[in-house]
Amino acid sequence: MPLIDKSLFVRLALLILTGTAIVVLALVTFNYFEMRRVLLHDQEQHYTALADSAALKFNQQLLELQKVVDEAAALYPLLPGTRTAALQLLERTMSTKNDLYGSAIALAPEQDFSTAGFQILYSWRGQGQVQVIDRSNPILDYQSDWFYLPYHLQRPVWTDPYYDADAGALMLTWCAPVLVEGQVRAVITGDLSLEGVEQYLEQLELGHAGYPLLVSQFGNFLVHPNHDWVHTETIYSLMQSSPAAQDRGGLERISRAFAQHSSGSVRFKRYTQDEYAWLYFSTVPQTGWKMGLIIPEKQILAPVFALGVKTSLIALGGILLLLLPAFLIARTVTKPIRILCGAAEQLAGGNFSAQLPPARRRDEIGRLILSFAQMRTDLRTYIDELTTTTAEKEKIASELSIARDIQHSILPKLFPPFPQRLGLDLFATLDSAREVGGDLYDFTLLDDNRLYICIGDVSGKGVPASLFMAVGKTLLKSTIQTIPDPAQTLFHVNNELAQGNDSCMFITAFCGIFDLTTRELQYSNAGHNPPVIMSADGVRMFEIADSPPLAVLPDIEYCNRRITLEPGEKLFLYTDGVNEAMDPDLQLFGEERMLELLAHCCTETAEASINRVGKELKRFAAGADQSDDITMLCMSYAQPSGGAVAESSPTSRLVLKSHRTELPRMVAWLEDLKRKLGWSDSLVTKLNLILEEWLVNVMSYAYPEGETHEIELRLWKNAEELRIEVRDSGIPFDPTIAAEPDINLPLEERGIGGLGLHFIRSNLDQWSYARVDEQNIVTMIKKLDS
Amino acid sequence: MQNSKRDVLLRIAAWAVLCTLPWVMAALGLLLSAHTVCANTLKAKQAELVPVRLVLQWEHQAQFAGYYMAQEQGYYADAGLDLKIIPGGAHVNPLRMVRQGEAEFCTDMLASVLTTQTDSTRLVLLRQVLNRSNLTLVAWKNGRNGDLQIEKPSDLNGTLITVWETYRPAYERFLQRYGVNATILPQYYTQALFLRGGADACCAMRYNEYHALLQKGVRLGEISVFDFNALGIDVPEDGIYTRQSFWLEQPRQCEAFARASMQGWEYALKHPQQTLDVVMRYVHEAQLPVNRNHMDWMLDVMLQSIFPKGHADWELGILSEASYLNALRILGLESTAPTYTDFVTSGARHALD
Fold first, then answer.
1. Chain A residues whose beta carbon lies within 8 Å of the beta carbon of residue B287
2. Which of A145, A232, A255 lies closest to B289 in CB terms?
3. A-B contacts (CB, under 8 Å)
4. Cα dist. A60→A53, A67, A159, A642, B280 in Å?
5. Given strand A570-574, what is the order of strands in its sheet?
6. Which residues of A touch B215 (CB under 8 A)?
7. Phi/psi at A603 (nearest 5 deg)?
8. Fewest CB atoms within 10 Å of the CB: A221, A478, A496, B239?
9. Residue A130 in domain
10. CB-facing half-sphere around the CA of A673: CA atoms within 13 A
11. Is A163 near chain B, with CB under 8 Å?
12. B189, B190, B215 member nearest A236 (Cβ)
């Protein structure tokens, strides 16, 4: 079976063979049964004719004898009723017919025997010559059928057959009454030996197993190969005594056929045997006897069997011979398919140049090859197109990514933005829903004490919104730097944007200026969400004027409002991406939830608050796609207690991780400053050595092993001097009061960092140490050469 | 030349004969003496047995199975009898043979014996073997020409019937009882006339002719059977007879024979298959055209008619006086027949008689 399943070739070959075998088998079978039918029909005709002719021949014999006896009976009344006349008549009768065995003239019992001179005369052929006797026991003869029957029936009749010991043969007698005036005067008989019939029947050509049958009108077997049956059994006695139902049934059929037809055939199971035989029979009209020929079916059908065996052998040989062509045909038919199959496997492996079979044929296989070739071409084209499209898509994606970088780069992202402004805690994020977004935020110090903050949302999303946002953000910033008034700024920006705004986009925006000295926030709003103020007492929303967003209509007047931010209060600006964030069931996050959340964040830093809100939003969305840009800005200001309030912003600032691998960044930072500020190489080298010495000191000892913290470097520069602050949150350590090293001690016994601090101190003009807010602040001052 | 040569040869032959003769004579003498001795011992044995002859009323058949078995089992020899069984037939008249002393015993029907009884040589009944009548009248249901309907006895009016002479009185009585006026023809050894449609009805013994008709293809649906036993016209049948003079001379021998015969029947009753085998052997030896199936049927009916069973009103081998008188009445022989005691020997009478 596996071979059949796997190979089309084997299957096809077997199919051809099986089909042929079935057809041949059907033919052989049909041939057998047809031959059988024909032969049986043929044999029936032949044997029935044979039986008919035998019956007729016998009947002819009977008729001839009847004629002779009837003539004698007709003649007798015309003769003188004397013994001589009777003897002459007997002699004449016997001589007329040679196969007449014997003949009798019996006077009826009422006749006058003495006048006639005889009572019963019998003549027969014995020992080669005709003899005549007077019957010795006439009374017994009168009681015999041969006299009794014609005497009472008053018509000629055949007796039943009987065995005659003298003749040594089976006999039957035709007995004719001599009727005169309605009286039976005498009976004249003629005996016929059945020997002739027996011999005739036995000479018939019935094959080796066939045999003849003669049965009387009462079913007596007269001729049968089983001699025990002859004369003793009848069809009916056998029917009574047979123990087997099969035999009784066969005899029953035969007796019925005998009763109903004068000639015909019966198929029956042979007596006490398990094989069928045919009985062909015919009736002898004169006696009603049945002459039959019994032929075993096996004998009749022997030629058919022989023929069947021969045809079967020929068929088998034919099928064997067919094996080769069947396999050749199957091979020819499946060859292109096999090649195609190989090509398809190569194609599946990515080889488009696999050899296809030549498509010379116009049949299904030819069409399949053509279709396959077409498919291969189409596939190749498709793959080419797909490659191009993918490349283009990738290009667009990379462009968008670049656009996103650019967009994000125009937003201030350095936190803390103004480290020199101690106490100012400001943090903002923008999380775009797509590659590029339409939200914006901004802040900058307009001067030492005024901080500009802004948040906005452009209608729509994607590239157009991002472009509009860039324009809006830039306009707002540049305008407010010129006109430090929020309402005025909004008015001008609105007019600028409203002009030629064919795409009908708009921006909602909130912008304000926070005065660090007075803690007052002057603000104006163009259709943006009201910001939130968070304090330990609770959260509250700004009161804002209901004014339209920017770029909708020109010449809209926006108004300024003022609010004072108390110490400990925090300002929270946001876009609608926060309160309109959606979960998978499209439920909004909502302002209430947002305010409740913010109430818990009032003591946290700006960054922590925003991160917390962002985290909560993500949790709420639970995997749902972000529908809008999420932008948040949080700010608080704690007035520093020292004089550092008025301190100006550092010229530059660097944050390092507390690890030595960060040192090159410090070097790069100095190189960058050297380029910008035009320092000398020697200065940079000296600064480099000082900072490296101190930083290595901090990185090595300020923190527990394995922990990483931030180290902040701030640099101020004026015409005379450089001031560098290094801040770390490590263990308190004041280097300025560290013991002077004993330079005379051997190297192993000196204190840690002793020489380094010595180097720092000797190369600086001034240095100081302060511990503020759990931080070590080391301030280094270096006078600049003129 | 030729003559002298022949003389020499003759001489040599004669000399040779003379030389061997005494030896041959001596050998012959030895043989003869031995033969005589053997014959004498055989004779001595046989001398104890009395030779008797039994003539059967018809050819060998199961009707006489009891006698075959008694012979076979040596019951006759045990009784001191050397029995020879003579088969009957158309040419044999058993009654005449017994009367004339050609045989000591015969079997025959009561009716046959009574109708042929003469005062000079009377026969006496030793045993009444068959106490039941097996006589029937078989008629074509539609008559011989197919234009009648014969279902009951009265339907026989106007028909042609063949009848055995012996039972003619019985049949006439039967016809008379039903007021039937029918033409009666004699019936002999065959039923050929009936079978050829020459008669509307014929006689048939239940054990023989009736069954033979069925074996010749006559179907039960074609015939009506009038059973005389069922109709109450019951003449007992086969009996064992001897002539009165012999009975008077040899009563013991007669009784011994009768008893051995009945013993044979009893054996047949107990061993029907063996009995049938013996019957068939007799039949084959006589080359009679009968089949085993027919003999089987015959034996069965015979045994039913001999041995009382169930409600049967007879005793084995006994002819009751009532039965005898009834038979006489049926046969119309009341005036001529011998008296019961004259006709029936003590062995066939009721034990109380």
1. 163
2. A232
3. 65
4. 10, 10, 17, 168, 38
5. A424-431, A630-637, A570-574, A532-535, A538-541
6. 219, 234, 236-237, 240
7. -90, -10
8. A478
9. no
10. 26
11. yes
12. B215
Take residue A319 and report the two structure tokens written for it: 């099928």
The answer to whether the Cβ–Cβ distance between A140 and B216 falls below 8 Å is no
Question: How many structural domains comprise chain B?
Answer: 2
- Counting Cβ atoms within 10 Å, is residue A312 exposed (0-12), middle (13-18) or buried (19+)? middle
Decide if A152 and B189 are in contact by the 8 Å CB cutoff. no
Q: Does A286 touch chain B (CB under 8 A)?
A: no
CB contact under 8 A, A153 and B294: no
Query: What is the crossing angle of helices A681-701 and A754-763, to 10°?
Result: 150
* ipTM of predicted complex: 0.80
Q: Are strands B238-243 and B105-109 parallel, antiparallel or unpaired?
A: antiparallel
Residue where one domain finishes, among candidates B231, B265, B288: B231
A386 and A417: one domain? no
In a mutational test of the A interface, the residue from B216, B218, B300 whose CB has the highest number of chain A CBs within 10 Å is B216
Cβ pair A735, A760 in contact under 8 A: yes
Q: How far is A254 from chain B (nearest CA, A)?
A: 12
- Chain A, residues 215-234, CB within 8 A of chain B, namely 218-220, 231-234
- Does the beta-carbon distance from A160 to B190 stay under 8 Å? yes
Count of domains in chain A?
Answer: 3
Condensed to tens digits (0 to 9), the pLDDT of residues B201-260 reads: 999 999 999 999 999 999 999 999 999 888 888 889 999 999 999 999 999 999 999 999
Beta carbons of A113 and A107 less than 8 angstroms apart: yes
Residue range of the domain that includes B168? 135-231
In a domain, A510, yes or no: yes
Which residues in A lie closer than 8 A to residue B189 (C-beta atoms)?
143-144
Chain B residue numbers with beta carbons less than 8 Å from the beta carbon of A287 are: none
Helix (H, G, I), strand (E, B) or coil at A283: strand
Residues of A in contact with B284 (CB under 8 A): none
Distance from CA of B69 to the nearest CA of A (A): 23
Q: What is the DSSP string of A351-366?
A: -TTPPPPP----SHHH
How far is Cα A442 from Cα A426, in angstroms, rounded to an integer? 11
Q: How far is A160 from chain B (nearest CA, A)?
A: 8
Q: Cα(A383)–Cα(A313) distance, rounded to whole angstroms?
A: 62
Q: Do B63 and B106 belong together in one domain?
A: yes
Buried b (16+ CB within 10 A) or exposed e, B214-246: bbbbbeeeebbebebeebebbbbbbbbbbbbeb
Preceding peptide of B236 cis, ω within 30°: no
B14 assigned to some structural domain: no
Cβ A442 vs Cβ A491: under 8 Å:
no
Q: What is the pTM of this model?
A: 0.59
CB contact under 8 Å between A159 and B188, yes or no, is: no
Token couple for B33: 């003496």
pLDDT reported for residue A194: 84
| Domain shared by A715 and A568, yes or no | no
Q: Is the pLDDT of residue B1 over 50?
A: no
Q: B217 vs A235: CB contact, 8 Å cut-off?
A: yes
Sequence-distant (≥ 6) Cβ neighbours of residue A381 within 8 angstroms:
none
**Is A136 in contact with A104 (CB distance < 8 Å)?**
no
State the residue range of the domain holding A468: 410-644
- Determine, yes or no, domain membership for B18: no
Could you tell me the CA-to-CA distances from A565 to A116, A340, A518, A523, A571 in Å, in that order? Answer: 185, 83, 9, 12, 8
Q: Report chain A (786 residues): mean pLDDT per 10 consecutive residues.
A: 70 85 90 91 91 91 92 91 91 89 92 89 86 88 91 91 77 92 92 85 86 91 88 90 87 90 89 88 91 91 90 89 84 81 84 77 80 87 92 89 82 79 86 81 86 90 83 89 90 88 87 89 91 86 83 88 87 90 87 87 85 89 85 86 53 85 89 84 88 88 85 84 88 78 58 72 85 86 76
